[in-house]
Amino acid sequence: MAAIVQDAVEKRFTSSRNKMGYVKDLAESSDLTSIPSKYTYFNTFNEEDGIEVVAEEEKIPIIDFSLLNSAIPDQRAKVIQELGKACQDWGFFMLINHDVPESLMERMFVACQDFFNQTEEVKLECAEEDVLAPIRYGTSFNPSVDKVFFWRDFLRVWVHPQFYSPPKPSGFSEIAMEYSQRTRQIVRELLKGISESLGLEKCYIDKEMEMESCFQVLVGNLYPACPQPELAMGLPPHSDSGLLTLLIQNQNGGLQVNHNGKWVNVHASPNTILVIERLSNGKYKSVLHRAIVNNKTARISLVVAHGPCPDKVVTPVPELIENEIYPALYPGMTYKEELHSRLSNRLAGKSHLDPVQFTDESA
Predict the structure, then answer these.
(1) Which residues pair with 94 in a beta bridge?
(2) What tens digit of pLDDT does each residue of 265-295 get?
(3) 114 pLDDT exceeds 60?
(4) Is the Cβ–Cβ distance between 265 and 53 less than 8 Å?
(5) Does residue 108 lie within any of the structural domains?
(6) For range 108-114, the mean pLDDT
(7) Residues whose CB is less than 8 angstroms from the CB of residue 22 and which lie 6 or more positions away in sequence, other chains included
(8) What is the CATH number of the domain that holds 148?
(9) In total, how many domains does the chain have?
């Protein structure tokens, strides 16, 4: 009987108005006891997902943002050294004492939750098929090519150089604009420190990547509670495109980063920003990370990805190319081209990096 009920759930779900179906609706089905087969990720893909999860004592780098503008030379030199080491050893760090008020972060969480709590009819007004649509509500990663669906619904919005926002819920636009402006300022300051850590001029990356016109994308991710979290995956192992990605998550955790071949759980206080980066002709790492799910409560993460000017052709920094020691690893490509390639295909570890990288492939 249980199998018959589950079968009915799957049929009802897959025959909904939107062919792909959305996870939130599925998760809230009162008769759902197990996940549909198309969401069974584990036991389907093994690859790097068999990697052991490290205990909590693994120490993730912490960068004190306030020291980047310290008037004390030794303090600033020390934090730039720490920044470079975090980029090289982890490709990931936690940012404290930044300029984004906790109240604004909380308001952004609420606005995102309010969007997902709207009726499916309202949300579907933003369900564009074009992967580069400036406002796009969707599920999984790219359902047209995903072999297995991921336990995730998302809202992706372009917020710079041109600002877009879904028409509903009320107030979303104002909060998203303020949040994107604040995070953009943080990224430009971080890039100055990263430039110096690479032995470049302070404003080298900011100028070369035309960050005044940077491409900034806000993504809200909803990972509902899952009846079989041991089988499902929120997002599989991947690394981000762009220069720097800032991420915050609610208290339910779920983010894991790969360090030295092992998965590390990431827990951060409410006012901590997580920074996932890609930079430097192979010298700095592009961290592999994933999102897991749980069976108790929904997880929300807010991601703000920052890339260079969309039409900027990105090539390795000449100063970082040392012939046979550090040859140019990646050919030039505009950020718009790289982003389209990334969003049109499946998430597959770091394989999407093959065509590009940079002082970032970031771009």
Answers:
(1) 62, 274
(2) 998 887 888 888 765 656 787 789 999 999 9
(3) yes
(4) yes
(5) yes
(6) 97
(7) 120, 123, 139, 153
(8) 2.60.120.330
(9) 1
Helix residue spans in the chain (DSSP H): 2-14, 23-27, 73-89, 102-116, 120-123, 172-197, 204-208, 335-344
Burial 69-101 (b: 16+ CB within 10 A, else e): eeeeeeebeebbebbbebbeebbbbbbeebebe
Q: Are 358 and 330 in contact (CB under 8 A)?
A: yes
Q: Parallel, antiparallel, or unpaired: how do β-strands 62-64 and 92-96 relate?
A: parallel
What local confidence, expressed as pLDDT, does residue 144 receive?
83
**pLDDT tens digits, 9-54:** 444 444 333 455 899 999 998 888 999 999 999 865 444 455 556 6
Query: What is the predicted pLDDT for the residue at 67?
Result: 96
In a domain, residue 86? The reply is: yes
Would you say residue 359 lies in a domain? Answer: no
SS3 content of the chain, % helix, strand, coil (to 5): 35, 20, 45
Asked which of 9-23, 37-51, 153-167, 223-237 is least confident by mean pLDDT, the reply is 9-23
The pLDDT of residue 363 is above 90 = no
The structure tokens listed for 108 are: 């952004």
Q: Which of 111, 123, 118 is nearest to 180 (CA)?
A: 111
The Cα 173–Cα 331 span in angstroms is 37
Q: Which structural domain, as residue segments, surrounds residue 129?
A: 2-353
Length of the chain: 363
Is 159 contained in some domain? Answer: yes
Query: For 345-359, how does the pLDDT look when each residue is reduced to its tens digit (9 = 90+)?
Result: 666 555 443 333 333
| Measured CA angle at 233 (ends 228, 235), to 5 deg | 155
Three-class DSSP category at 308: coil
Instruction: Measure the CA–CA gap between 79 and 63, rounded to whole angstroms.
Output: 7
pTM here is 0.86
Neighbouring residues of 165: CB distance < 8 A, sequence distance ≥ 6: 135, 157, 159, 172, 173, 176, 177
Q: Which residue has the higher pLDDT, 233 or 337?
A: 233
Reported in sequence order, the residue ranges of 266-324 that DSSP labels E, i.e. its strands, are: 273-277, 289-291, 299-307, 313-314
The answer to whether 184 touches 220, Cβ cutoff 8 Å, is no
Least Cα distance to 221 among 286, 139, 278 occurs for: 139
Dist CA 258 CA 279 (whole Å): 17
Helix H or strand E segment including 28: none
